[in-house]
Amino acid sequence: MVETLSIPEKLRRLNWWIVFTILLLTGFGLAVLYSAAGDGGNFQPYAMKQSMRFAVFLVMMLGLATIDLKWWLKTAYPAYGVVLVMLIVVEVFGKVAGGAQRWIDLGIIRLQPSEFMKITIILALARYYHNLPRVYVTSFYHMLPPLAMIGVPVCLVLLQPDLGTSILITCGGVAIMFMSGIRAWLFWAAGAAMAAALPIAWSMMHTYQQKRVMIFMNPEMDPLGSGYHITQSKIAIGSGGIFGKGYLMGTQSHLDFLPEMHTDFVFAMMAEEWGLIGGLFLLTMFSILLGWGLWTALTSRSHFGRLLAMGLNVTIFLYVAINLMMVMGLAPVVGVPLPLLSYGGSAMLTVMIAFGILFSCSLNRDTAMLTEGPNLR
To answer: pTM for the whole thing?
Structure first.
């Protein structure tokens, strides 16, 4: 019988070293955002707002950590349904900003439902495969519901348009399907089919998305236009050297050569001022967090807990990997922020929710059997 813990006891049993790592990583990010505000640095407008958001989200994360795993199982489908309805509302009444229709304007806050879908798709699929007996996992008929659960929100997000978020939703969902036990050859076959369909996908892409892919292949073809972002990012990273130019001393950033230095290209700005040492520090911090998430998944006794923890860990990894590949010219620019460093509330909210649920999985990893579903393992 699993011991029922009070909220103070759950908080006491949290891995506070991981909480400290999150605090340290965010604190370093705030220092970078302070520098991004201009010559000599300034708390306004980035660092101050980001720190206030983080304080609120930190309390929220600790609150989510105290929720039992059974509650996440029970609310997985309703949460997915609510976010899916919100995505439909965005298409009808959503606010347009920067040429994209991604937000619901509630007056005091602008919600981006596609961010929540990155979490709820993992919750819903983890529940689906928790309920599904193992003998049916590789059945074609039983693969149709998860494919539909992934495909519908991805199509809605692509209409906004938001290629980066659609990639994260797809990869998170496919990761859950893979970890549930679906044979690897099916993924190879799906990959081959997708490769064959690339000409069709290319024709359906927006002009600016096609241009991003072409610039990724050859940034020098338009160094002062579409290739400007990635060209300046590479210059900033390379000019930082091993130890960097010094805090508040970045020339690419402070002379306004580096665009979006407080959001998508925050790593490039950091690398210019902190050099390779700063980059290794960030990679070490992220490795600690991802390693803990992997350990949580591997030690969870319930199938739902394993899938949920691994799916959330994959999502956080994709945030980091895609952003770093993007700023170094190894992937097209798709607008994926760097967790806990890039300025913005939506991405930070998503990542802190993911960490909160991961803490919940960690505290409940000894829960072997959950109430819903056969859980036949």
So the answer is: 0.87
